[in-house]
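Hello forum,

I keep getting stuck at the same step: I have a sequence, I want structure tokens, and every attempt I make locally crashes halfway through. Rather than fight my setup again tonight, could one of you with a working pipeline run this one for me? It's a single chain of 392 residues.
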Amino acid sequence: MTIEDLYTPLEEAKKEIRRRWADKDLEKKVAKFLKGNIPDVFLHEPLAISTTHVATPNWALLEFRKEAQEIGLKPLIFEYLEDAFITTNFDKASLARMVFYHGRDDHGDMMTTSRHVIDLTGKEEKKKIKDIETLWGSNLVEFHHGVFMSYCPGVDVTDGSSFYKAMGNCAKEYYPYILALYIRNGVLFENYIANRHEQKFLDEILFPAFEIVQKEFGLKPLIVTIAPQNEADNKYWWCYPEFIKTLIPKNKEEEERETVHNVNKASGLSVEELKELMSKWQVKLKMEDWNLSLEIVKFYRKNGYHQSGDFIADPLKKEAIILLTHNPWRGDEEYTLVHEMLHVLLYDYDKYSEDLILKNFQKSSLEHDAYMEKLEETTHNLTRIILGRSDR
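Reply #2:
Ran it on my machine without issues. Output:
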């Protein structure tokens, strides 16, 4: 089975959902399969459904609203607010680190900036999504709902947590029942992604559940893509319109620093030369099992401080983005590149250590700052040793 087998074309789904809705025998069969546990909101008319964890006005949900209008169905966001927050889940992480789309540069690359809206030091990890607070003290779900409702009136939102829990203790148990809702009661709008990180979910949960439901009813659950398939994993769909950034209160750290992503190189080595160096050092540092990418950014820092590099890493997925300045001032970009790659290698240990410190001390306290200084000093010395240099 492949991802393409899951989907039904929009126009076909538009006709099929109305035919199925009128089928009373099918109605009884679905109710029996779901043990009579069909959420009330699904009982009155066929719906266009999004199962995003929290209603939020990213480009994917804005496109969902538009396609729901095209298919002539009332849109509903069927949330899962009691699910655990995990930063390694991209959908959930995008609620915590919001990325804003500013258009495309001359090369067609996305220009973005980002803002953290919750504490990402590990404090909120594995909490229920509904219990997480923003950096400014409000509830995370209420914040996203407020922004969503002001920008997307007319879209209903309901928490499906009780349904998920009633139908099973884990995704493998409840997924067949979720998909059964899209036999007759609604059309699901979703982008499933076939990559090495999602393949386990596809093979062990989604594909078996789909086959169970299709065999039970002799019909496919009605699933429509939000984005064209060649764009389904395009991170644009998880981005937000840039004006939404103005609705987020700034904390002290964010007032002092901002990063503009995907900008053109102004000086120094070309992007191609940097990518060649990164490939060389990926082998030398035994990082072949990592999925590394390179991004040129513009760092804005308080008092004109010059920053050369940074990184974004997910050690569980072994994915990382190396961020390098568009206008290098040191002149030794290889040093900066290797320095950031070493930070990626150390990141799992780094986060473990920092989390222990933050259990006892505040962020930016003397104790926390001392740790960060030691981390930088250690990474700097390792970089010098690896490059065989006495200094930068």
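The chain has two domains: 3-235, 251-387. If your local run keeps crashing, start a new thread with the error log.
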